[in-house]
Specification:
The chain is mainly α. The chain is built from 7 helices and no strands. Helix 3 packs across helix 7. The longest helix has 21 residues.
Length: 152
């Protein structure tokens, strides 16, 4: 019987199942309040990401640190990828994509951080009942897209 190739075995068990990040990932600085092991997993899986997870979390926290009791997100003024991050809903979309792409241990650690930040976001922004509940394809929009914006 022929022997299975290592790549085929890794593909069968999943991308991150039973694998530890390499040493170089464990030596990098931690990512925004994540434990060392979770930070290493984030650094290891991050090369395919457009925006670093630490930068996205920094932008999310900066928005939540804005003065005032009620916050109103602002829409991005230009369609360029970096300008799009001026809209906090786009930042939260990127965080959700990163969350889904992480291995289980890092996903749990990021989930704890996001739960705290999301609770603060919900508390300090107002629900917009006039916002569209679905996107153009008909799939439901996440709750962070249904907040009252500054220009409305």
């Amino acid at each position: 019987m022929p022997r299975s190739r290592p790549g085929a075995l890794r593909a069968a068990r999943g991308t991150h199942a039973g694998r530890r990040p390499p040493a170089w990932a464990r030596e990098l600085p931690p990512v925004d309040r994540l434990p060392a092991a979770a930070s290493a997993e984030v650094q290891w899986t991050a090369p395919g990401r457009h925006h670093p997870l630490g930068e996205l979390l920094r932008r999310y926290r900066a928005f939540l640190r804005s003065p005032g009791s009620r916050l109103r997100p602002a829409r991005a003024v230009c369609p360029a990828p970096l300008c799009a991050l001026d809209d906090i809903a786009v930042v939260r979309d990127e965080l959700a994509d990163a969350y889904r792409a992480l291995p289980p241990g890092a996903r749990r650690a990021l989930g704890r951080v996001l739960r705290f930040l999301d609770a603060e976001f919900r508390r300090r922004t107002m629900f917009d009942r006039d916002a569209a509940a679905t996107d153009r394809s008909g799939s439901p929009r996440p709750w962070w897209h249904r907040r009252l914006y500054a220009d409305e």
